[in-house]
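Predict structure. Chain length: 275.
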Amino acid sequence: MSVLEIKNLHVSVEGKEILKGVSFKIQSGEVVGLLGPNGNGKSTLFAAIMGNPKYKILAGEVLLDGVNILELSVDERSKAGVFLGFQNPVEIPGVISADFYKAAINARSEKKVSLYKFYRSLEDSCKSVELPFEFVNRGLNDGFSGGERKRNEILQMKLLDPKFALLDEIDSGLDVDAINLISKSIVEQEQKGTGFIIISHYARLFDLINVSRVLILVNGKIALKGDASLIKRIDKEGYEWLKKEHNIEIEEEEKMNRVSIGTCATKEVIKNGTK
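Prediction complete.
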């Protein structure tokens, strides 16, 4: 069994401290829902774990089976077994998808995968996420729709079979069928032993997967821990009850998008006078 442990993590972006002492651990096969208002550090946590150079580590450790991966390069963190599913997957014309997948698999293996085994695995994975197999001969995400890019992220996860997967709003912008498809893939991967930390603003996704527990990240700290019932309450009431019941004031961000679980996007647009 593998363990990913975040210990007293402090992270700054452009000189401003965003994470202010985040600590928790997750084991193989667990699914942790990471919730909280936008602008409070959820995506920052994922970026810091994976080594985005924009994010400066001020203090703390991220231990994967006892090894501090913050001391490793980005590719070494991936090879160690950590996968990040992007909120906005980038388009990379000229990099053939199949070549990219094969190179990623070989980079994580002592022995290069055979061409036959690779294409069998790739064909099966494409079917499971309902991506046409001919897409693997196109540039990475080149001309893909938003939903196809998200399914491509899940395809990569299935091929790499990581110890831990960090999924940043993998369901945003998807229709009901696509959310059902992605949730099925998450459950299948969880049953193989992968641990998940999942950021989502939609209760529907959490309803479809086996959430072990929920963490609420507010003002750069874990403000509250609990079970899946927290998701339903936030979906119904938003985050205002944190102040009333736990004396937690949510710091406002000037450019923070406050539309999330528990808030109505239309009402926010009208309230703020924005489009």
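Summary: The first helix runs from residue 42 to 50.
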